[in-house]
Amino acid sequence: MQTTFPKLMLTHAAQRPLAAAMREKEYGIWQAHTWADMATQVQRIACGLHLLGLQRGQHMVVIGANRPWLYASMLAVQALGAIPVPLYQDAVGGECVFPINNAEVQLAMVEDQEQVDKLLEIRPQCPQITHIVYTDPRGLRNYAEPGLQSLALVIESGAAYAAKHKDFFQAEVDKGQPDDVAAMFFTSGTTGNPKGVVHSHRSLLDRAQAGAEFDKLSSAEEVLAYLPPAWVGQNIFSYGQWLCCGYVVNCPEDASTVTIDLREVGPTYYFAPPRVFEGMLTSVMIRMEDASSLKRGLFKYFMDLAKRVGTQRMDGKSLGLVDSLLYKLGDLSMYGPLRNTLGFSRVRVAYTAGEAIGPDLFTFYRSIGINLKQLYGSTETAVFVCLQPDHEARADTVGVPIRGVEIKLADNGEILVKSAGLLKEYYKNPKATAEVLTADGWYHTSDAGFLDSHGHLKIIDRVKDVGRIKGGANDGAMFAPKYVENKLKFFPFIKEAVAYGDGRERVCVMVNIDMEAAGNWAERRNLPYAGYTDLAQKPEVYALIKDCVEQVNADLAADKLLAGSQISRFLVLHKELDADDGELTRTNKVRRGFIADRYQPLVDALYTDKTEQFIETVVKFEDGRTGQVSATLKISDAKTFDPVQAAA
User: Fold this and answer.
1) Alpha helices, DSSP H only, in 413-477?
2) Quick check: 390 and 374 in contact, CB under 8 A?
């Protein structure tokens, strides 16, 4: 697109000044901000930041929840030709040091006292930070740190500057060009320091527009912005496409009120990772377990009907007269109220991505009339590479290449992508850039997959993670750990899984139970427990997880390619894997190598004949303190299946 983010914002403000651009919920009340309001706010913040010394080409860190001030601040930074760098709110101080120093950040915009304290804590390691601007003054009245001031003061000084220099803001916006750097997003850093992914206005807006065209998005859409702004997907859905389409972005009051706010907003366009959809379904099933026998019976009847004919209906196929009438009755009495309870009564398009979604989970949502689809992309591709067309949504693919995308496969099965949405570079990392971008413009995704006969892309695993079983009956068989882990996570009782097997005779897995689902299951059976560690080691819970593992093995046995990846032994971890402990990335991806080192005694025990193993682990609490969790973990064998027999 031949434009920039600030220019698009000013276009909306000129053409539809009184239309709502954003809404935010504060003290239980939704408050609207028009496009004219946004333009005024952006101008004042930009002028205020100019007075603080922000220059064209400099980076500015932004840390906060989805709020109009955050979006206005990013637009203000871009209006000056500077580059916003959003960081994760829940990242600890130490995780912010590298991005801040790598980008030579001098100015930071943060939300509240917690984020101010985090930056002040690491300021000795980042001495170049001259200004820290905060939006919420609570708890900060007596702070006297140099360069610390409120956004209100920045806006006040900016308004005075704008009044005296009426042409300044527009002149700065006009200087911006489509190929200027628009933003930098840091990767998860699963194998080392995170990399700064540099994107231009053109790359981000091209993909935002291509996605909007694919699903016929318009200014009439309503979106709920609740995922971390530091994640590129949130930026595309509630920033890039917001400015391309001019629809309304709604900001929830708090992370704890998202479910309520979702029902109040009733978005028409929605995105969530599979884990969110899993959590919603788990809550529904838990409530149904506690319902009367009549309600449970009706629920089962209509859900069986939906499973049989609902997906055909969503795929645009005609139903028989009887099934059509029954489905309408089910929609009136069950599916409609359920969609309303979930907040999906108005959803026209819903997407999930990031991890594979379970076929049963995918079918459930589509069968009750929710147009849930999958997409494929990454930070480096500005998200949109493949999308699923309406009536062609399948659980085992991630869609077809959309406008402007070319895909080809390397000899080792790696997916290569070419599009206008590719990164410019990894910041200050030419070696890493050269590793992923070829001279003729192809991007190495590091994912292994293939295009099926219908032109849909199928993902197997990360190329580097696809391994081979060595020795034993399955010698030489393919091992795809992520594929195995995702199959386990399809069960509501399993929250996380870590699989090992490359270069070994068999596959072994460490599991995290889902505390809500497993806890509710235990309570219904009058099984007492004193917390996560206690519940995780109950024999009854092990039997429950063993059943899940063996169902996965039965599925794998029927897959000629991955039959050798069946799980021989497993254990249930004594603590939940946590990003604060370095076990997960901030986007909740498993750091498999780190976990193998951290829990080496457990990995060793899985590959011996031990039936239990003691482990002691240092954990970090939310307030920064550390402690220890210890337990003797049971190790259980699982039944595996003969491939020929399972496939017969």
Assistant:
1) 430-436
2) no
Tokens linked to 91: 């990242």
> Alpha carbon 162 to chain centroid distance?
38
pLDDT of residue 623: 66
Provide the pLDDT for residue 189: 66
Q: How far apart are CA 79 and CA 13, in angstroms?
A: 15
Sheet-wide strand order for 248-251: 29-34, 20-26, 248-251, 222-224
Name the phi and psi angles at 373, rounded to 5: -135, 170
User: For 20-40, what is each residue's pLDDT tens digit?
Assistant: 999 999 889 999 999 999 999
Residue 258, exposed/middle/buried by CB under 10 A (0-12, 13-18, 19+)?
middle
Please name the residue ranges forming H helices in 215-246: 232-235, 241-245
Fold of the CATH domain 374-461: Luciferase; domain 3 (2.30.38)
**Could you give phi then psi for residue 584, rounded to 5 degrees?**
-125, 155
Contact of 170 with 180, CB cutoff 8 Å: no
Which regions of the chain are under pLDDT 70? Answer: 189-191, 622-624, 644-648
3-class state of residue 197 by DSSP:
strand
The residue among 283, 226, 230 whose CA lies nearest residue 254 is 226
- CATH class, domain 467-647, is alpha beta
CA distance 645 to 638: 17
HSE value, Cβ hemisphere, 13 Å, CA-based, for 586: 21
Looking at the chain, the domain(s) classified CATH 3.30.300.30 span 467-647
CA angle (107 as vertex; 105, 113 as ends), nearest 5: 115
Give me the pLDDT at residue 646, please.
Answer: 41
C-beta separation of 4 from 182 below 8 A: yes
- Indicate the SS3 state at residue 584: strand
pTM value is 0.81
What letter does residue 389 receive in the DSSP assignment? Answer: P
Distance CA 40, CA 159 (A): 9
Task: With beta carbons less than 8 A apart as the criterion, state whether 5 and 201 touch.
Answer: yes
> Which residues in the chain are classed under CATH 2.30.38.10?
374-461
Residues 74 and 109: beta-carbon distance below 8 Å: no
pLDDT at 610: 93
Q: Where in the chain is the domain with CATH 3.40.50.12780?
A: 5-271
Strand order in the sheet with 148-150: 83-86, 59-63, 107-110, 131-134, 148-150
629 three-state secondary structure:
strand
Is residue 388 within 8 A of residue 362, CB to CB? The reply is no
- Residue 31 confidence (pLDDT): 96
- Sorted by sequence, the CB contacts under 8 Å of residue 192 that are 6+ apart come out as none
Cα–Cα distance, 79 to 6 (Å, whole number): 6
Q: Which residue has 């009733």 as its token pair?
A: 266
CA distances to 14, 18, 135, 148, 287 from 37, rounded to whole Å, are 11, 8, 17, 26, 43
In the CATH hierarchy, which fold is given to the domain comprising 5-271?
Rossmann fold (3.40.50)
Residue-level pLDDT at 546? 97
**Residue at 177: amino acid letter:** Q
